[in-house]
Amino acid sequence: MSGTRKAATPEKMGALRWAGLVLSWFVMLSFGAMLLVALIIPRMAGATPYVIETGSMEPSMPPGTLVVVKPVPPTEIGPGDVVTYQIKSGDSTVVTHRVLTVGFDGTGEPRWRTQGDANPSADANWVLPVQMQGKKWYSVPYLGYVTSLVSSQQRGLLMGLIVVGLIGYAGNMFRGAVKERKREVRAPERVAV
C-alpha cells in the first residue's frame, strides 16, 4: 500500500516557522529575565537572593517568593522595612520579617523588634546588628521555587550552560539569516513584460 504524503505548503511552513520562532524567543526571554532578576542583578549589586519558605509574610510575600536583600547601614533600617536576619549570629538559617520598632542598648547600638506580616505576635528576641543580613531591595512572588530547584554550585553551571546555549542559538539564527540573504541575492529577479 503506497501512501501519499502531502507536501507542506509554503504558507503553512511560514506559519509554523513563525510560531516556532515566537515560542523560542518567548522561552529565551523568560529564562533571561529569570536569570537577570534572580542571579545577575543581585550579584552585580552586592545583594543576596533568599527564598521565603513559610507563610509568615503572606499575603505580600507568599511561600516561594524570591526576596533580594541588600546590606545597608543600621541607621537606614526603620519601622516598616522588611529585613532578613540570622536567627542566631553566625548561623546560616535566616528569617525575613518586617521591622516593628527600633530600640537601642546602653551603648547606643540599635536593635530591632520584628514580626511576620501573617504572625499574630512579634518575634521573641530583638535582632542585633551582627545578625542583620540586610533590607529588602525587591521581591518576585514564586520565582524562588525555580531558584530553589538547584544548589548554588549548580546555579553557576546552569548559568554558564544557558549563556553558551543562547550564544549558540544566536549564532544559528545569524547563520540562517546569512543563508537566506545569499538565496535572495542568487535568485534572478522576475521582470514583468
* Count of distinct structural domains: 1
Strand order of the largest sheet: 1-2-6-3-4-5
Give the biggest sheet. Answer: 6 strands, antiparallel
> The CATH topology, please?
Umud Fragment, subunit A
- CATH homologous superfamily grouping: Umud Fragment, subunit A
Let me know the number of strands. 6
**Average pLDDT for all residues:** 82
- Radius of gyration, Cα only, in angstroms? 26 Å
> Number of DSSP helices?
3
Helical content band: 25-40%
- In percent, how much strand structure appears in the residues? 15-25%
First-residue to last-residue Cα separation? 47 Å
In the CATH hierarchy, the architecture is Ribbon
**Low-confidence segments, ≥5 residues, pLDDT <50?**
none
Secondary-structure-based class equals alpha+beta
Name the shape in a single word: elongated
- The CATH class is Mainly Beta
The helix/strand order is: HEEEEEEHH
Describe the structure.
The protein has a 6-stranded antiparallel β-sheet with strand order 1-2-6-3-4-5. With 193 residues, it is α+β, with helices and mostly antiparallel strands. The protein has helices spanning 10-45, 143-147, 152-186, and strands spanning 48-51, 66-70, 82-86, 94-104, 110-115, 132-140. It is elongated, with a radius of gyration of 26 Å. Helix 1 packs antiparallel against helix 3 (152-186). The model has no long low-confidence stretch (mean pLDDT 82). Strand 4 and strand 5 form a beta hairpin.
